[in-house]
Amino acid sequence: MAKKFWVLFAVIVFSVNVAYAVEGNTTVSVSPAPLFKDPTTGIEMVYVKGGCYQMGNTFTEYKEDYPEELPVHEVCVDDFYLGKYEVTQGQWKSIMESNPSNESFCGDNCPVGNVGWNDAQDFISRLNSRSGGSKYRLPTEAEWEYAARSGGKSERYSGGNDINSVAWYNENSLIFDPKTQVEEMRLHPVGTKAPNGLGIYDMSGNVWEWTNDWYGSDYYSSSPRNNPTGLGSGNKHTIRGGCASGADTNMRVSRRDAYEPDFSKDHLGFRLLRTP
Asked: What is the count of structural domains for the chain?
């Protein structure tokens, strides 16, 4: 009897900790990644084993329209932890005691939006001071894309090639607003689409995500191979991942855009990186 109990217990624990990803019409199990949970905010971080990969537009489409995604080049990154989800409105409020999001009605479990790069740095500085160190920062472009590609795979979107299974974007994020009596493209709670192969959610869609790098449209031509960090200075910082009001082309893991550090808009947020 005792033996049967422990076998049943092991099966239950295993089933609870296994994540699932959807690729096409097939559901496949994904090995669980080690997690770190920030004691102050509850932010969950997924361990990402470093490696080398082909960064940039590895597919044939859009190469003429988005030359800043070329040339495809090999990049290697070290190990890191990355937020399992985008930083939420509730987590932001726990540190900043305010909520900049214009879609606050979406709830504490929705990603925080209307956040500039400088705002994100303020959040990180306050979180680090509470954590007694400087473990948290924004990911570099190279780290972000490596994680979005499920550890460097050639994926069109973060989690595969089926956009509707992994991303909230302008064709599936419509919500009826009883006040305006029209459907509007809205944010959705984090983690409500399928995760990528690392168990990370919403790296395509929901909110654009700030990275740490200064942006350069031709930077890929001279980017270092090991742990590139972008230009040494500039006017804009790179954003990645697309958003709930964006077109499918913006959900691609290679897509790059940029804004000034103090710029903010509704569907612009971030996720955290933590060094091991």
From this structure: 1
Structural domain boundaries enclosing 155: 35-274
- Asked if 158 and 203 count as a contact pair (C-beta separation under 8 A), the reply is yes
How many C-beta neighbours within 10 Å does residue 214 have?
19
| 16 Rama sector, left if φ>0, alpha if ψ -120 to 50, beta otherwise | alpha
CATH, residue 156 = 3.90.1580.10
Q: Is residue 5 part of a domain?
A: no
Is 2 inside any structural domain?
no
Distances (CA, A) of 230 to 221, 223, 224: 12, 7, 9
Do the beta carbons of residue 175 and residue 186 sit within 8 Å? yes
| pLDDT tens per residue, range 32-91 | 458 999 999 999 999 999 999 999 999 999 999 999 999 999 999 999 999 999 999 999
Cβ neighbours of 94 (radius 10 Å): 16
Give pTM, 2 decimals.
0.86
Task: For residue 13, tell me if it sits in a domain.
Answer: no
55 is a domain residue? yes
Asked if residue 146 lies in contact with residue 152, where contact means CB atoms within 8 angstroms, the answer is: yes
Contact between 269 and 113 under an 8 Å Cβ cutoff? The reply is yes
Phi/psi of residue 95, nearest 5 degrees = -105, -45
Distance (Å) of CA 135 to CA 101, 125, 269: 26, 10, 19
How many angstroms separate the CA atoms of 49 and 54, rounded? 16
What is the average pLDDT across 183-200?
95
